[in-house]
Specification:
By secondary structure, the chain is mostly helical. The chain has helices at residues 2-20, 26-37, 41-51, 57-75, 82-103, 105-125, 138-160, 164-190, 204-220, 227-243, 252-266, 273-286, 294-310, 324-359, 364-377, 379-382, 387-398, 401-414, 416-432, 436-439, 443-472, 482-504; strands at 224-225, 316-318.
Length: 505
């Protein structure tokens, strides 16, 4: 015990001697710490990362170390004071961080950002990120990025302050800067996002197989309607046509089809569900939308649909006719998708071939727009697309504002604008004898090619969305790919952590 007391007394004497020479100061303790850790670039980078890895990181570290420091100071005869130990830890850490930033501003910033990103990475990996459910649309990415940036900026800002007022001010400023950073990175992430992969679009061959399987399923129901039931359907169609003034001279196609049904009914035909639906398709095929017979063709189709949907158990020789409606509607819808997908695919293939033949593929965007416009301009093809599909095709045909702006600027740069700039560059080189202006002659052409590529990329993405909608039956909702999301997360958190400090300076 006497030996321990002697050690304490010697430590107390050393402390009093130091105080007599100037007292305790954060600078002197920081000098001692740097003799241990060093003052090189690597030390400044790693020291910053540890000190500022998370919001309130220096406070947490100072508080955790305070009891041990208080015990050491008590041993040295200075009394056990945890609050004083915490304050001194904070002062030393602030002095060390100031020195790091002065000596190695870039390295200390890198260390700070890396530490912060590493500390928050488990949260993001665990799904604690507003970008987790973001859709690749500009409002979604900007809004979620701004909210996440504001949250991180406020947390880091509050952690850098001293006192409630200072912390509140820093938190507000950090939230504002973080929100701006997150919104900007979200907007940048939208470029090229929202594509639909080929895997999301059933091929024409797959749709054909699905359509055939659906019609085979209707056959498997084994439904064959009674001759009397079918005869009642034909009588209903004839009566309706006469009441609407069907005239064989003005409406020859509709009159011819109705005559075929009359002959079948008189012969005692008992059609199957598949045969009745195939006759419906013949009506659609032979009576086009631009025909005078269209009115009667639509009424014949409607009568057949009502007959199939409302048939009762006693209306069929075999099978359950009450199951026919849903089965045949499913088959028809798959058939519609198959036909439409085939039509659009063929139109795009033709556009690409024409562009390659005319201009080495450089005008493919124009050709695609023209061919798809022809599909909607022709009633014979347009009638098979629903409203959502027509809207998607219209978007491809008209283009988006950003796409059209890039396209126009690209055309200008590769056309008149580029030629004028190139001519001016050549003239400047000839007049001055300096060949350097010639180097800039190609800039407009390069920029034009880049802008045209951007336009084509947006157009291609919209084409894939339209194809996916037509083939799949519903608007695809692609998610933000993991790589792009990770980059946005890193930029948002890094900017929210670092930028407020620079703007404050």
């Amino acid at each position: 015990m006497d030996e321990l007391e002697a050690i304490r007394l010697r430590a107390k004497a050393r402390r009093r001697k130091a105080e007599a020479q100037g007292g305790w100061s954060p600078g002197s303790e920081a000098d001692l710490a740097e003799r241990i850790t060093g003052t090189g670039t690597f030390a400044d980078m790693t020291g910053s990362g540890i000190a500022k890895a998370v919001p309130f990181g220096d406070e947490i570290a100072s508080a955790a170390n305070a009891p041990f420091r208080a015990a050491r100071e008590w041993w040295q005869g200075d009394g056990f004071d945890v609050g004083r130990a915490y304050d001194r830890n904070m002062q030393v850490e602030a002095e060390l961080q100031r020195r790091r930033e002065e000596r190695s501003p870039i390295a200390s910033t890198v260390g700070t950002v890396a530490g912060g990103l590493g500390a928050s990475a488990p949260l993001v990996k665990g799904g604690v990120s507003l970008l987790q459910g973001a859709r690749p649309t500009l409002p979604s990415l900007m809004g979620r990025g701004a909210a996440e940036g504001a949250a991180y900026g406020a947390a880091y800002g509050a952690g850098e302050g001293r006192g409630l007022e200072d912390r509140a001010k820093n938190a507000g400023w950090g939230a504002a800067i973080g929100a701006g950073t997150g919104a900007a990175t979200g907007a940048l992430a939208r470029i090229g996002a929202g594509r639909v992969t080929d895997d999301a679009i059933p091929s024409v061959e797959q749709l054909q197989a699905a359509k055939n399987a659906a019609y085979d399923a209707t056959d498997a129901l084994g439904i064959r309607y009674k001759p009397d039931t079918y005869r009642n359907l034909v009588v209903d169609i004839v009566s309706d046509a006469r009441s609407k003034n069907l005239n064989p001279q003005r409406h020859p196609r509709a009159a011819s089809l109705i005559d075929d049904m009359i002959k079948e009914a008189r012969s005692g035909t008992a059609p199957t569900l598949r045969q009745l639906d195939e006759f419906r398709q013949i009506v659609y095929r032979d009576i086009g939308p631009d025909s005078a017979d269209q009115f009667f063709g639509n009424r014949i189709v409607s009568k057949i649909d009502d007959f199939i949907d409302n048939a009762r158990l006693g209306d069929a020789l075999t099978g359950d006719p009450t199951t026919a409606g849903d089965a045949v509607k499913h088959a028809r819808e798959l058939n519609r998708r198959y036909r439409n997908a085939q039509t659009v695919h063929t139109a795009m293939e033709k556009a690409e071939r024409r562009a390659m033949a005319n201009n080495s593929g450089g005008n493919v965007e124009n050709k695609v727009r023209q061919n798809l416009a022809n599909l909607l301009d022709r009633p014979a093809t347009a009638r098979f697309f629903n409203d959502a599909e027509k809207k998607a095709l219209e978007k491809v045909i008209r283009g988006t504002r950003g796409q059209n702006a890039a396209r126009s600027l690209g055309n200008w740069a590769k056309g008149f604008g580029g030629h004028s700039f190139a001519g001016g560059s050549v003239a400047a080189a000839l007049m001055t004898g300096n060949p350097l202006p010639l180097a800039g002659a190609a800039v407009p052409y390069m920029a034009g090619s880049g802008l045209k590529a951007v336009s084509r990329g947006i157009g291609s993405a919209n084409e894939r969305i339209a194809e996916a909608l037509i083939a799949g039956g519903k608007m695809p909702m692609p998610a933000l790919d993991p790589t792009r999301k990770a980059i946005v997360d890193l930029l948002t958190r890094g900017g929210a952590q670092t930028l407020p400090g620079y703007t404050g300076q």
